[in-house]
Write a structure and sequence with these properties.
Chain lengths: 305, 424
């Protein structure tokens, strides 16, 4: 019984962790390249979830096979949400590159309020329910009194996360774009002098971050089946915690942090108290920032005169 | 030259239209509606078409405007600059007029119950804005969880007043002390953090307080909230239309007719006095060593350290004092509403207070008043358009950061200047 319960929590935690990890990559990449906390990123994730929801409903009217529906929804969510990320950056952050340090954060706060209320106005404030898209799964350890279940959906979520992670890790470490990004992280002026279009590199960073967040949104709506316009706030803070935990600026760190936050949250609600599960993430955030602000895989940030 | 401009400009507007279509197409154009517990999509293409056309044409017109302006290169006069110039030179008189106006406001002929309620709400926000201005404006610490202290003040006032029956004037300082203690509690761990990290942690702290209030049912009654919070009395004289046996009320003591407005007017003066105390305190403390240390710390932490200012203690006092005023405002809120629940202390409240301080121009006391009148007025005018008004509100925050990042009152007079010595 105990082992089975533990195993079930582990499975759920890894699934949730994948979702948080995908959102956290957006935070960490943006922080790495322009040194700001993109507060609206959680709401970009929410927009992605809504686009995926709409796409699923539309495809339910047709008779396209499930794997194609999944692939198409994935692409649709990524493309449309990337537009949001790109526009938000152009409108709200780009004019503020040379402003004082807190200006982009306040602007992002405003953008987050705009996005939330825009979706509320356009789609209504009620929660939206989606019928399960992928059903069924494996069950095992039935004889112990507690059945452990591993659904196909959970396998799908973890698999897609791993594949996307692999693709984007390759993109960042091996291609010219990735090199340009890493150069921008180090010194933007110098990078521009080397003939790299800094603005475009930053835009692409936002596009990548937003499309990954939209994948997380799609998985969120498939996994929980209910969304509303407010999901981005909590998910955003938790993913930010994940990014900090893994070391902000580091992409593998974000994934690791996401996994840890997912596990912490699931185990906390499984063994301690479900009402205070959100407090768990916040406590982790505070503790991490105080005791090791560079996270697991981050670089120390030394303040110079 | 001209032709090329039109070509690129039209291409640009078409591109804008395309992006607008991608943005608004799915979210606005395909509204999901629940029917028999199954979601259906109701298309709204006409609205999308309007939005797309507006975006494209708007883009073209801005291009044209920017092009024309670049051709002319005229002198741009800024409205904000003239406002702040005006306020700088006539600041004292304006402040005096504003105070006199707010003192006689309840007795003006056009003042009714509705206006009084709005005025009380505005004064509450002004007080919160002034309190947060100590933290953000003077000490330069972006606190996104200020509403937590407001909540702590409101709940501690309500709990003491309900369970012990203590009067408003005893509970008020206790609520302030409790809020200040929470300020220190939050301050201790987070003060080593820099700007944006600090912002996120304070935000998390605010949410933690809210979740705690929501789930600690024995103490806070959770989502049901606390009811029956005693109303304030006029130095022991309650505002009641039918006094109990042998009890003196406000209207019997003064021998006047009972009128429900009496309590509202009393509440109005109460918050006015509390707000003015906050303001006076800030103005005075800016000239004291601690106030100067805050402002120095805001400008350069490393320089402060090397000059022997203790950053931890300095920041802690800023947090504690800011929190204390938040707590005062909270207990006023509790006594005015007679009912509080965690609903009133969501993150959006913190965002509104931060917006007030930022829009007003961080560190400017008059700016806070102007920004409150503008923002709360905006929210009130568009009362019936719940989410649209918040879109406007969030958009205003972005626009302010882009066009006037230092707020309405952008010029910041140094608190202390070196005077030229007249000895020679």
């Amino acid at each position: 019984m105990d082992t089975a319960y533990f195993l079930q929590q582990l499975i759920n935690g890894v699934t949730l962790g994948s979702v948080y990890g995908l959102i956290a990559i957006g935070y960490t990449m943006v922080y790495g390249i322009i040194g700001m906390i993109n507060f609206a990123h959680g709401d970009i994730f929410m927009v992605g979830a809504f686009i995926a929801l709409i796409s699923f409903i539309l495809f339910a009217l047709t008779s396209i096979a499930l794997p194609i529906v999944l692939l198409l929804t994935l692409l649709i969510a990524m493309v449309f949400t990337a537009c949001y990320g790109w526009t938000v950056e152009k409108l709200a952050y780009k004019p503020l590159r040379k402003s004082f340090r807190l200006a982009p954060l306040i602007s992002a706060l405003g953008m987050s309020i705009v996005l939330q209320n825009y979706v509320q106005a356009a789609q209504g404030a009620r929660i939206k329910t989606l019928q399960p898209v992928i059903q069924g799964g494996f069950t095992f350890m039935e004889d112990t009194g507690f059945t452990v279940s591993l659904s196909y959906l959970q396998i799908f979520i973890v698999l897609v996360t791993i594949i996307l992670m692999a693709i984007f890790t390759l993109l960042i470490t091996k291609t010219a774009l990735g090199r340009a990004q890493r150069a921008c992280e180090q010194d933007r002026t110098m990078t521009a002098l080397m003939g790299i279009n800094v603005d475009r590199t930053i835009s692409i960073t936002f596009i990548i971050g937003s499309s990954l967040a939209s994948v997380a949104g799609m998985m969120f709506v498939m996994y929980y089946g209910v969304i509303d316009f407010y999901i981005g706030f909590l998910a955003g803070i938790k993913a930010f915690t994940a990014a900090v935990l893994g070391g902000i600026g580091s992409v593998p760190g974000a994934m690791l942090g996401g996994l840890l936050i997912g596990l912490i949250e699931v185990f906390w609600s499984g063994y301690i108290s479900i009402e205070y599960k959100d407090i768990a993430a916040f406590t982790v955030l505070v503790v991490v920032l105080i005791f090791f602000p560079t996270g697991f895989l981050g670089k120390p940030d030394i303040e110079k005169v | 030259m001209e032709k090329k401009f039109f070509q690129t400009s039209i291409k640009d507007s078409l591109f804008t239209g395309l992006i607008a279509l991608a943005l608004f197409g799915p979210i606005v154009g395909l509204r999901t509606v629940a029917k028999n517990e199954v979601l259906e999509v109701h298309p709204k293409w006409f609205i999308v078409l309007i939005i797309v056309v507006v975006c494209a044409v708007g883009r073209f017109l801005t291009n044209l405007y920017v092009y024309n302006r670049d051709q002319k290169t005229g002198i741009q006069s800024s409205i904000g600059k003239s406002i702040s110039n005006f306020l700088d030179t006539k600041g004292y008189q304006i402040a005096l007029t504003a105070i006199i106006f707010s003192v006689i406001f309840p007795f003006l002929p056009f003042t009714d119950r509705y206006l009084m309620d709005i005025a009380i709400m505005m004064l509450t926000y002004i007080m919160l804005g002034w309190g947060l201005n100590i933290v953000i404006g003077l000490a330069g610490l972006l606190d996104l969880g200020y509403v937590a202290f407001y909540a702590v003040g409101a709940y501690s006032y309500a709990l003491f007043a309900i369970h012990f029956g203590w009067s408003f004037w005893i509970c008020l300082p206790i609520a302030g002390i409790f809020a200040a203690m929470f300020g220190v509690l939050l301050g201790f761990p987070v003060l080593r953090l820099r700007g944006d990290y600090l912002a996120i942690v304070t935000l998390a702290f605010g949410e933690m307080i809210r979740i705690l209030l929501l789930n600690w049912y024995q103490l806070t009654k959770g989502p049901d909230g606390l009811t029956g919070i005693p109303r304030p009395s006029f130095f022991g004289l309650p505002f009641k239309s039918f006094p109990d046996e042998g009890e003196q009320t406000f209207h019997t003591f003064f021998g006047i007719e009972y009128n429900p407005m009496q309590r509202i007017i009393f509440l109005y003066y109460l918050i006015l006095v509390l707000a003015l105390i906050t303001n006076l305190f800030t103005i005075k403390i800016r000239r004291l060593p601690i106030g100067r240390a805050w402002e120095a710390l805001r400008e350069d932490e490393i320089a402060c350290k090397s000059l022997g200012v203790n950053p931890r203690n300095t920041k802690l006092t800023a947090f504690a004092i800011g929190a204390m005023f938040g707590g005062f405002a909270g207990s006023f809120f509790a006594t005015r509403q007679a009912f509080i629940s965690p609903e009133s202390f969501t993150f959006i409240e913190s965002a509104i207070i931060v917006a007030i301080v930022v829009l007003g121009g961080m560190g400017s006391q008059t700016g806070v008043v102007l920004a409150t009148v503008f923002l709360i007025g905006l929210i009130e005018v568009f009362r019936d358009f719940e989410s649209y008004r918040m879109i406007a509100f969030g958009g205003a925050m972005v626009l302010i950061m882009i066009f006037r990042p230092r707020g309405i009152l952008a010029t910041r007079k140094p608190t202390i200047t070196l005077e030229k010595s007249s000895s020679k």
